[in-house]
Amino acid sequence: MKTLCILGSTGSIGVQALEVARKLGLQVIALTAGNNAALLEEQIREFRPSIAALADEKAAADLRVRVADTKTRVLGGAQGIAKCASCGANTVLNAIVGIAGLEPTLHAISAGSDIALANKETLVAGGRLVTDAVREKGVKLLPVDSEHSAIFQAGMPPLAGHASTLAKINSLRPRQKQAADPYVKRLILTASGGPFFGKTRAELEQVTLQDALKHPNWSMGAKITVDSATMFNKGLELIEAVRLFDIPAERIEVVVHRQSVVHSLVEYTDNSVIAQLGVPDMTIPIQYAITYPERHPSPAPQLDLTQYASLTFEEPDDEAFPAVNLARRACKIGGLATAVYNGANEQANEMFRAGEIRFLDITKLVTAAIDAYAAQSISTIGHTLEDVLSIDKWSREFVLSNVGDVALNVPSNININF
Question: How far apart are alpha carbons 236 and 242 in whole angstroms?
Fold first, then answer.
């Protein structure tokens, strides 16, 4: 029986992953969460993992008392999360939100586990640090995001995690050196457009957090829902696709598809376009990442196209929502610019949710951080874990120190020290 570890089991993706495990009868051997001891207790009692952890030490102490009558060992803090990630499960599903998911991913890879990746930041910030580790260990890196899963299902294997598949492909046809599949012309990521689709930049000046959290199609955590409203979520996904499929950013397009039925598409050199469709339900890509290459009946409802009057596709408004183009710029700058993009966005998103800045300030602050990084001419910097965590810290500090000046003429005396 396949064994499963779920990092972030009390969040939206984690809860749905456990729904898949319940339906398929998978053995869950490790669970982690942030601070939700009550829900993690319920999950422990149902799935009986051998080990569990909470990032919050105080919550972990509470959980130990709650489940003292079980055989589950409860750990706390970052070390506890790392221990769970390293438990040796066949598959580790990483649904932790933010840069906090990077180190557990590396621990899981080091332990030889296949990775079902819902944590975008692992690839956005970690980049080749992660893909090199996957190649070295020979494990699979399987996407959980619906867009990247759709691309995978449409015939584009994640290059980092399918060495045996790629070797077979390479034996059949020549491949461009360090480039995406030469038979692929472009990837097309679909975006719902979030709650503010159609609004002008002027109209976005006064939107509130409550407005931003009203996503039309998906039920997600607050951070990701705000990212969807700003389109930073799609920018992060574009960068993730660059890393995951080894394809340049200029060969990835974004279209707004309000119905969220077509999850993404692959266009091949003969102009044939293959799409993956399904209802807006994350259990489909979650299950495929866990059970690949097998398919099983899903908890998700069956798609009935007759229930949709139309499926529409529109160009994104890059003036009102510049986050995607900013992601392209970060890719072009190189180095750890994409880690800056992620870290600055995480900090600004958190401040918006705390009521400390306005909605449009998020983009202004991230843009300024990217500008400051680019001005340092350090695109050749290494990609160690310490480098990534240092630039992440710098990005957050930059946002905090410039929050009072979001007109943001970037200071010329910015220093990035490692």
Answer: 10
